Amino acid sequence: MDTMNDINSDIQKAVMADYKYGFVTDIEADAAPKGLNEEIIRFISVKKNEPEWMLEWRLKAYRHWLNMEEPSWANLKHPPIDYQDIIYYSAPKQKVKPGSLDEIDPELRRTFEKLGISLEEQKRLSGVAVDAVVDSVSIGTTFKAQLAELGIIFCSMSEAIQEHPELVRKYLGSVVPATDNYFAALNSAVFTDGSFCYIPEGVRCPMELSTYFRINAENTGQFERTLIVAEPGSYVSYLEGCTAPMRDENQLHAAVVELVAQERGEIKYSTVQNWYPGDKQGNGGIYNFVTKRGICKGDHAKISWTQVETGSAITWKYPSVILKGDHSVGEFYSVALTNHYQQADTGTKMMHIGKNTRSRIVSKGISAGFSNNSYRGLVQVGKNAANARNFSQCDSLLLGDKCGAHTFPYIEVKNNTGVVEHEATTSKIGEDQLFYCNQRGIDTETAVALIINGFAREVMNQLPMEFAVEAQKLLAISLEGSVG
Amino acid sequence: MLTIKNLHAGIEGKKILKGINLEIKPGEVHAIMGPNGSGKSTLASVLAGRKEYEVSTGSVQFLGKDLLDLSPEERAGEGLFLGFQYPVEIPGLSTTNFIKTALNEVRKYRGQEPLDAVAFLKLMKEKMALMNVDQSLLSRSLNEGFSGGEKKRNEIFQMAMLQPKLAILDETDSGLDIDAIRIVANGVNQLRNKDNAVLAITHYQRLLDYIIPDVIHVLYNGRIVKSGPKELALELEERGYDFIKSEVSVED
Ligand SMILES: Nc1ncnc2c1ncn2[C@@H]1O[C@H](COP(=O)(O)OP(=O)(O)O)[C@@H](O)[C@H]1O
Ligand SMILES: [Mg+2]
């Protein structure tokens, strides 16, 4: 530990020597000033006591990012993002890292409680381990000891960089390279925290691993970085839940999630995303540009993405699977709900490389108000991917006639033994359906909730039980006042 | 229980009901018959509160309340049930879940506690036996892929679960074979008591062999043109609606 601190202070000195601007001399600052440049990246790295290779990795990503352009192919419209008007690092004011939940700032705890995700409650909910991220610093981790006994590592990314640098170095950027795309490069340069999970060979993780993210301080971009590695024959189910409070200004969010499943390894990744979507007039809300990708590296590996997306003003997100191992399986189950002026462009990529690989896509888009909801999917069958199979089902449900639903399915098949099937439907919530429910005593809002939850059921069924209940409520809340 | 006075209603400017008068007392069973397009389903929809239909004049009292003032869900809460001629499908929503929600919403309206899972299950079991309804049907999505007969039986099952004060059954017998009609009729008869009433809309008198009505009304061209005892059904069966039409045109 001491040597680590020594090394870090050496780096600190080295980095400090480089500062051209004055602000970073105040190393106790809780937030970086607005803007992005190499000094900011050094600042973040120093704040986090990172080893040099990490800083180099960040800087490389940043330099690459400078030469990239923001993508414009998605079916999304938003004013230009001023990357110099964002604070890239802010830490909640906390002197020492808490050893237990009781040491956590009561103000932060109250915010969690307001959001209905109190750690206390989570703690009591046996079977759920929580790693909560408020702003950029991980503030609490539970069930660690229990997991450690099995050799499972579940901690914040910052901690992983300190404690398991060899694993992080091996896998970070191995699925989503730092230069992969504009937002991934940005994330690689400035990510502040996130989660790290490592499941050793043959271990079946006995509980759902769960992280709640939330954006706290004003003007703070949130750039999480998550990495999950499932060694041969292991299994893990990971839950990511997100909530953000009301906020007027748009906030940029660009996360990267990487999953690695080795031979017969299985990762199930579930997300419920309900960040602030902006107000009814379309002001404010989170801009959510996420890169999520998993690789089925070994034979018979399996990766399954399940997402329920109800929040954010803009969602740009395509959780994907590279099916490299023979007989590997990729799944994508998605519910994306947009209301008011929300825009979502989301879908998946299934890249079949190995033989006898299978993928399944079930996408349910729900649009209300003036919103726009697009499914964008790519199924790729490589020339050596003999007997690849894909089935895609994309359904859209419209509430009202001012909203839009769009489907962009792309298929590239280079091996003629592949079978790729695509089905799509668009429907509206009918007056007949609403009246039928009304006649049975069910008011229109409840009726809409029943109808959309029915519509989304196939996806909801993929969620772990406690999450599914929360997600169902969320769909209903998100549509409040949109019908009738 | 239900008093309809001079009810005029239509849709999109089209006049359909042209002065309906009807009085139903607790414990009574009324049947409404009449040729296609005469306005039977429209009457049912207006009573249940479908907002596409405009009521131009007239009044409807239900258990001392102005029915036309209430929303459809309030009417349900007050004890009005409509068995639909064409029940809708809701994909992905289990029939059980739907009925449980309906029952608890109606209970909430009446200031009652929601039924817990155990009590609900007990009630379900009881009514399933009564209505000859299978668990597998109730686990399926609401009406999705149901046969015509299954849909109608599901309507009556819901009626049995909700135990309404007034059940309006819109051609619940159409498309059913004789065994299914017997089951449906049996369900209706089980519900009958001195406080409840039934308004059965039907095309054929055969339902009325099993549900014996106190009064039969003939609805034609938006008006009740004839009311009488159950024997009227037999007369209609024998002579067809043409004799009514000719009688009416004479009166016009
Ligand atoms: N939604 C509607 N729009 C236009 N006309 C309608 C509508 N519903 C019913 N009608 C018309 O009103 C008349 C009565 O219909 P309905 O009440 O369904 O008759 P019944 O149930 O006796 O067969 C018919 O002429 C029908 O075409
Ligand atoms: Mg009809």
TrEMBL record, chain B:
PROSITE patterns linked: ABC_TRANSPORTER_2
Keywords (A to Z) from UniProt: ATP-binding, Nucleotide-binding
InterPro entries documented for this protein: AAA+_ATPase, ABC_transporter-like_ATP-bd, FeS-cluster_ATPase_SufC, P-loop_NTPase
UniProt name for this protein: Iron-regulated ABC transporter ATPase subunit SufC
Family, per entry: Belongs to the ABC transporter superfamily. Ycf16 family.
Organism: Hydrobacter penzbergensis
Range of residues in the leader sequence: none
Gene3D superfamilies: P-loop containing nucleotide triphosphate hydrolases
Domain annotation ABC transporter: ranges: 2-246
Higher taxonomy: Bacteria, Pseudomonadati, Bacteroidota, Chitinophagia, Chitinophagales
Superkingdom in the source lineage: Bacteria
Annotated GO MF terms: ATP binding; ATP hydrolysis activity
